[in-house]
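Collaboration report, partner site 2.

Our partner group contributed sequences for two proteins of shared interest, and the home lab folded both. The records are reproduced in the order in which they were received, starting with the first partner submission.
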Amino acid sequence: MEQLLSLITSFKITEEVLILGLVLASTTLLTVTVVFFFVGSKSKTVKKLEDLRRESGAQKLKKGNKIDNTLESLAPIMTPKSVKERETIRHKLMHAGYHDSNALTIFYAVKAFSFFTGIMMAASLYVFNPNMSNLNMAMLVCLGIGMFIPNVGLSHMIKKRQSKVRGGVPDALDLLVVCTESGLGFNAALRRVADELMISHPDFADELDTVCAKIKAGVDMSDAFADLVERTGVTEITGLVNMLAHASRIGGSIAQTLREYTEDFRDKRNQEVEEIAAKIPTKMIFPLLVFIWPCFFIVAIGPAMLTITSSFGN
């Protein structure tokens, strides 16, 4: 017993032991994740429901269901406890176009795998290249990349999808004006526009298809468009929602309302483009100072300076 206590007291946690412990922990967690992924852990209720579905033949199980159930079983381990954080990530995933129920679980699974990969990269640098200059900084960079690269990728996907949705709004408005003025009702015109935009703007066409399905199911038109703004995060079409709701309440002409909003939207886009063009000279100052002006001074003053230097040298 005394030997065991002396061994415990003599044990010191060095930097190398800490890194090896992190490698052991990450490897163990990765192994457990792989085992859960292939074996899965389902509750008795879920297993009973699947047995009933097999017996009734009402729904055939797909190959991806095993993966989904495995990730759902790992959800309490990977997802945070904060409800606010979960809702924020869920809204971001929804803005990026991921509306599945297991999207949040898959995102945190990817984030956990990315974090473990960063730990492995940092441990590999420490073990295989211990004499590297700025080793601690490189290890911190690896950990930071592993921790934050899923969030950066998600933000990039959100911006890309919102840009695609914004690009489809003007064409959709023009087509809506043409369809409504030709005699189609608003729901039929919206359905036709969604079909026409499926090739040129598939993301916005899919959202319009969802709006049509909600209106057909009995949801109020203003509420359906408000859900569209919430799903996409594109606040530029909030004015369209308000104008359509106002026109439906007072019984005004939807075609005239759409035409007026289309003109206002086109003017707003022109103003945004003019604003971007006006900012270009200010943004060009830094490249001019760093890259262009030194080259100009070298060409303009360089020969004279060489001549003066050679004269004073002689």
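Second partner submission, folded after the first:
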Amino acid sequence: MYLLGYDIGSSSVKASLVNAKTCEVLASDFSPKKEMEIKALKTGWAEQSPEIWWVNLKEATRQIISMAGIDPKEISAIGISYQMHGLVLVDKDLSVIRDAIIWCDSRAVPYGERAFNEIGHEKCLSRLLNSPGNFTLSKLAWVKEHEPENYARIRYYMLPGDYIAMRMTGKPCTTASGLSEGIAWDFMDNAPAKFLFDYFGFDTGFVPEVVPTFGNQGSLKADIAAELGLAEGVPVTYRAGDQPNNALSLNVLNPGEIAATGGTSGVVYGVNGDAKYDPLSRVNSFAHVNHGDATRVGVLLCINGTAILNAWIKNNVAPEGISYAEMNDLAATIPIGSEDISIIPFGNGAERVLSNEEPNCSIHGINFLRHGKAHLIRAAHEGIAFSFKYGMDIMNQMGIETKTIRAGHANLFLSPIFRQTLSDITGATIELYNTDGSIGAARGAGMGVGVYKDAKEAFSTLKKVVTVTPEKKNEIVSMEAYERWLKQLKMEN
């Protein structure tokens, strides 16, 4: 018996196969090997064709089935993780109307701000736990105003994971967790936020059926099963946005537990037992995957410019042909503080932690006689860690203590400089585990289909591979570098 998990990212689609009985990962792979295209037709825009998600999902599926050498008929359930906040529109035939407006697109900022001010801050925050901001319903408001011909064709609006599940099963549905990540869930009414739909003039019929996060959400259609090389009737039993799913992957389900990622964007995600919110909406609160009878709210800090900055440095600054591991080695030759260079990493769209400002990335303190490529590499890693610290201080004000951070052993957490800097300036112990989003989605599918009785059983084989603790000797110099970085940030904003 096997479990199949997908992680639909904006860079690639990853798939994993897990042995349901032993929890062993049999195969994992991703497609494409080069990052998927993000279309930026105008400054601040970011769109992707849902078809490229599907094409790469098929290829990733083919690869892992071949690697594992299993009989696809033995796959018992499918789980889906996906890039959050995206807008996919389908018509009455369930065909895509236009390219998806994805998470890092910032065109909807004015629509969310206007709604926040006109509806009232207190009402939005007390019921949505957020400003409507640059989220999914605000993106839909942009479509309504600028593309009335497309808006008139809408039957359902969906998140990327909703679309992929519908493509597999033919069943349009979503979850409360998904609706809340699009700022469309009313925590007081425990239902879609009718007052916000009414404000924007949207039909609540645009919302697909709301189903539980764990459980049967539809079964694989015969034609799709043939297309994927799988068996007809396999149920989709779990879906969640990438950050709630990352928390699940790390068995972060209870108040006080914290998960983090350092992918294209960087995220710290803490679980609260109360429906709290940031009055300035700089960090955002969503229904966690296990929100229900007990309140489980995920508080999300998002930094858009993290691994994308590291990739930019690799492609435009580092010696040609260098690997990320070699970049880490080069950066390690430079002392803490990068000899007074500071990099503000906010160069990938509107930053919620900066109240949806879009300052772009900036580099400060370069001396042409002292500094070289290695300084810039180290300053980038430190600047990303400093941006995490900046946002985590806001989370601390909401009652989420940062004592231990769990993350997958991947992406920026492979950088010794980034993770040690983050540990030193926050005082937190960082634990890295052998998991990722697609593996978590597979185990979530096992929970949804009833293979596992609870999360403890599902994640019994989760292994800690690296532990990073704060180093007292670094504390003063690291904090001095952070204070210098913070001063530059305040000067720009």
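Feedback sent to the partner group on the second submission included the following. The radius of gyration is 22 Å. The CA atoms of residues 36 and 92 lie 28 Å apart.
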